[in-house]
Amino acid sequence: MLGEGTKMEREEAAEKIIAALDVDTEEEAYALVKQIYPPVSFFKVGMRLYAACGPKIITGLKKLGVRVFLDLKFHDIPNTVASTAEVVTSYGVDMFNLHLSGGSQMIRAAVDASAEAARKRGIPAPLVIGVTVLTSFDEKALREEVGVEKKLEQHVLNLSLLGLENGLNGVVASPREAEIIRKECGDDFLIVTPGIRPLWSVPDDQRRVLSPRQAIAAGASYLVIGRPIIRHQSPREAVEKILAELTGG
Ligand code: C5P
Question: Where are the beta strands (DSSP E) in 78-189?
Fold first, then answer.
């Protein structure tokens, strides 16, 4: 039997996991949730599932009692992003994100529109998170394909500081950059890290990966984990193995 301390550690570790529901149908999404909730209670709806199902996937997940991170990575002119932020806030999402490279006006407009929409409806404002550099990028691709001459880490840090200055709750970043962001942006700034690969899993298309335990040690607040859980023959077993790794079991 688990001791109290171990049970608490396990709950704390489970709180840090956001499972990415990268599937195509509502049925598959709900089936996954049912397999791993609890202990996992935060789920990410990305563009694939959202494009397939529309907003009803959000209300459906909320009815199951879980938290929803809507990962649509908004990047457009400030007015468009602000009005979209208002719409997704009205769906009751707990977190959504935008690309920091959209700039300060876009970021500020989204944060303000979301806060105002939540206030009007009397619901808690969602956490608004900025995407720094996708974890599938490496420095060479960033320089040669996108034309960013700065060191990747410096670019990620500059974008994170831009988010902090413009009212964001945190950033999405590779776990490899978590340490420098934590140091420069403070303890209250959320660092949401995809690119997580437990030691037993394969990297797929992610290039800047760390294990769950390494990511938490580097300062990550939340770990977004997709394929290692959802493509595992038993998602439940994958979650158990990740929790065991996080709690040192
Ligand atoms: O399957 P995997 O664990 O690689 O899934 C990571 C999830 O996080 C995917 O849904 C991906 O779209 C998302 N993501 C990412 N890198 C970012 C932001 C989001 O991999 N910078």
Answer: 95-99, 127-131, 170-172
135 CB under 6 A from ligand 1?
A: yes
Domain that holds residue 46: 19-247
Whether 6 is covered by a domain: the verdict is no
What atom in ligand 1 is closest to the CA of residue 205? 4
Indicate whether this model's pTM tops 0.90.
Answer: yes
Give the rounded percent of residues in the chain with a pLDDT score beyond 70: 98
d(CA 60, CA 69): 13
Convert the pLDDT of each residue in 148-165 to its tens digit.
Answer: 999 999 999 999 999 999
Give just the sign of the alpha carbon dihedral 214, 179, 226, 143. Answer: negative
Q: Could you read off the pLDDT of 205-245 as tens digits, one per residue?
A: 877 789 999 999 999 999 999 999 999 999 999 999 999 99
Q: How far is the CA of 237 from the centre of ligand 1 (A)?
A: 21
CATH number of the domain where residue 26 is located:
3.20.20.70
240 to 10, 82, 237: CA distances (angstroms)? 10, 39, 5
* Domain count across the chain: 1
